[in-house]
Amino acid sequence: MKKTLNLSHLRKDYRNGKLDFESVHADPIEQFKQWLDEAINCGAEEPTAMLLATSGADWQPSARVVLLKGVDENGFDFFTNYHSHKGSQIDENPQVAATFFWKELERQVRIEGIAEKLPAAESDRYFASRPAESRFGAAASPQSQVIPGREFLEIKISELKNLYKNDDLPRPVHWGGYKIKPVRIEFWQGRENRLHDRLVYTCESGKWIIERLAP
Q1: Residues 150, 194, 198, 212: which is the catalytic one?
Q2: Residue 156's Cα: distance from chain center in Å?
Q3: Which end of the chain is least crowded, N or C, by CB within 10 Å?
Q4: Considering only 39-53, 130-144, 153-167, which range has the smallest mean pLDDT?
């Protein structure tokens, strides 16, 4: 008989900070930028890593970690293969969610919104800024598809390198960026005794409304 793994004894009390209306920015994007800067400055591990959740026409959710590559007043940018599983799901259903967790600061940000493709020129600029090996890898990989082995990818990369020099490889049309345009952003600060602080921004008629949620 298999033994059940009991994890009930694992717990941590959070005591690093607090979150209230007086301490946050009226604009959630500006508040996010402040928290991201603090995560970077404190040496948080992979501060731009975000858990991206998508679902397709069948509503089966799927989640994976991607890297945030830009944020502005319109939302949050990431890049991927448009033919990947997440790309296919976004084509079918552009409603997505993203989560950041900075354990060093005992903070979490949850974002809900609509994913839209970035203009081709923006994807071109970002692709050109990547290291050469990353560009060749992106061009060679049929992301999310079944392949016979790693050698398949190595052969594809070798073929591309025979065709292009490092600076000549164009961005594949199937690879580019998305912007998550948020409609809801929640900021979570861990507090003692599980009485965490949660402030949620909801966009109503083009204006952000801030409310406190029970932990």
Answers
A1: 194
A2: 28
A3: N
A4: 153-167
* Of residues 9, 185, 13, the one with CA closest to residue 112: 185
CB 114 within 8 A of CB 203: no
Strands (DSSP E) contained in the chain are: 49-55, 61-67, 70-72, 75-81, 95-102, 107-117, 175-189, 197-204, 207-212
Taking only the tens place, the pLDDT of each residue in 14-32 is 888 899 999 999 999 999 9
The residues near 174 (Cβ < 8 Å, ≥ 6 apart) are: 81, 82, 83
CA proximity to 178, closest of 107, 76, 102 = 76
What angle (nearest 5°) sits at the alpha carbon of residue 101, between those of residues 57 and 67? Answer: 60
Q: Residue 7: what pLDDT?
A: 86
Cα gap 129→38, rounded to integer Å: 25
Contacts within 8 Å (CB) and 24+ apart, 67-73? 68/100, 69/126, 69/177, 71/29, 71/32, 71/33, 71/36, 72/29, 73/27, 73/29
Token output for 189: 């600060």
| In the predicted structure, residue 167 carries a pLDDT above the cut 80 | no
- Domains of the chain in start order, with CATH, are 21-132+173-212 (2.30.110.10)
Please state, in angstroms and rounded to a whole number, the distance separating the CA atoms of residues 181 and 148.
Answer: 37
pTM over 0.85: yes
Place of tokens 């800067």: 37
